[in-house]
Amino acid sequence: TLSLSKAAAIYEENGSWDKLASLYSMLADRENNTANQALFFYKTGEIFKNRLNDHTKAVEYFEKSIAARYSFEAARALAELSFAAKNYKRYMELLEYELKSAFEDSEQIKILEKLADCCLNCTQDLGKAESYLLQIIDIAPKNLVAIKKLGKIYYKTKNWEKLTEVNFKEIDISKDISEIANLYYKNGTIFYENIRDLTRATECFRELL
Asked: d(Cα 91, Cα 69) in Å, to the nearest integer?
């Protein structure tokens, strides 16, 4: 073990990253302890990612690491590479798994935002994006960012009733007078042109007087 530690130190000092990766990979294969095995696989993945710029091999070793024993470090590194490679399915699987282990509201919201953004900007799965954003609002009812994104979804899908609902939520939260007026105007227009409810349209336009 001492000679292997010395070899690792020499390889690192000399920048012999290929040799160091091979050493860590060999140690992982020989290791019976799953925690140590996961660590050696993770270190191998880090070298391929950060030193050798071989993201395919890095993904392979990060996958081996979390298969041996899950760690946030390996999962997050793998998620980063999966996103860069446009492997959105794997990226979202990793985030979903992390979400199950997140206890703090702020941490859950951060993960849900990433999931929603991936659905909106990468996979164009508006239904899933809506689901994640609604989960954010369940945790933080006044989360204006999530409310605005929901509004964009409902506008794209022409779900006019839900669009007016989120606009009213934004009205309740907003402190900007001009923005509130703009939202009442939008809702009035939607009620008049899309929903054909003249009573509610009139109520919204009256708020502008």
From this structure: 18
> With left for phi above 0 and alpha for psi between -120 and 50, is residue 158 left, alpha or beta?
left
* 75 φ/ψ angles, rounded to the nearest 5 degrees: -65, -40
Task: Give me the phi and psi of 113, to 5 degrees please.
Answer: -65, -40
In single-letter form, the type of residue at position 43 comes to: K
Q: How many CA atoms lie within 13 A of 160 on its CB side?
A: 14
* pTM recorded for the entire structure: 0.92
Would you state the structure tokens that stand for residue 82, as one six-digit string? 């999966």
Supply the Cα-derived Rg of the chain in whole angstroms.
25
67-79 pLDDT tens trace? 999 999 999 999 9
Condensed to tens digits (0 to 9), the pLDDT of residues 148-176 reads 999 999 999 999 999 999 999 999 999 99
Q: CB within 8 A of 117, min separation 6: which ones?
A: none
> Quick one: which of 55, 87, 57, 59 has its CA closest to 74?
59
116 close to 147: Cβ distance less than 8 angstroms: no
